[in-house]
Amino acid sequence: MHDRPAPRPQAPPARPPAVRRHNLGLLLGALRAAPSSRATLAAATGLTRGTVAGLLDPLVAAGVLAEGEPDRSRVGRPGTPLVFAGSGPVVLAVSVEVDGVDALVTGLDGQVVHRSRRRRDHRGLDPDAVFGRAARTAANLAARTGRTVAGAGIAVPGPVRGSDGAAVLLRAPNLPRLDGCRPAEHAGALGEVPLLVGNEASLGALAHLGQADDFVYVSADVGIGGGIVVDGRVLPGARGVAGEIGHVVIERAGRLCGCGGTGCVEVYAGLPALLGDAGAADVAALRTAARAGDPAATGALARAGAALGTALTSVLHVVDVGTVVLGGSYAELGTWLVPAVHAELVRRGVATGPDVAVLVSPHGRAATVTGTARAVADRVLGEPDLLLAG
Asked: Which domain of life is it from (predicted)?
């Protein structure tokens, strides 16, 4: 009988990259919510303190995270919280709208560093003119920070196939010269940073994740856009058109819409239709008239609210969520639209009372660029290689 050779000592198994990314995402998500010490993070996530240190200390060394002031308010040895460094990487978001460009620079924790909004009529312009100028505006804003840009995002006024630099803007009903273009190909001023491209309303929905986990977001400016959020995630749809609430048909043989169809809710409750019905020059004038009790203004708002409620009836019957959030210009007119929309939902049997809430966005027209910055930060925080590349 021969003795068996002693087994050779084996190295510990390597941590799979996917597990590392997952764990780092948990930790950075917790830090985005609030500064925390390594010990607190370990207790909150179930990871060991050694794992927490191994994942986060390289980010401290790289200037992404920083040591905060120790918490001396508690008994015992004070913990040293980790925070996102004030000189660390930023993310850049730009929202291209029919009549303007919003740009926003935030830290990875969502803290606003710079923002700008410029009125610019994009109707009749080609992709180079639209996205090229928007990219330069955003890049100039980011350059003012003197900080590394870890990622960028472009929100576009139409459904999108894909979400990266190869994403295609399928259709822009109010900017038809953009149909079929790849926005990233015209946004060279943003440089070589990882790029996210998405629909403006779907990205705008992300700005409202603190209000509800499941909701329908409806935003109006020149057109009506929307996003459907379930379990904290936006539903993109197989063709990238989920949430295109503006083109829900409420009258089969109705008015002609810019999309080529007829009877879409956008031509009854979109901003141009609403202002035209009220005889108002802009949202501010409409709001002033409605506050004064002008019957043309209040009547137009009631009709628009009923039309929107009719469209949302179809949406809620399909997705069955309990919250509707009104954004964009609708947020400025929420005093009149919320009761009109809710009354229509009740009349059509979707809501029986408080079981379906109709809320007003706290972000207004800034929701899109705010949600875009959040989406970019989420992507960056989930990819540790992006944070350590510099």
From this structure: Bacteria
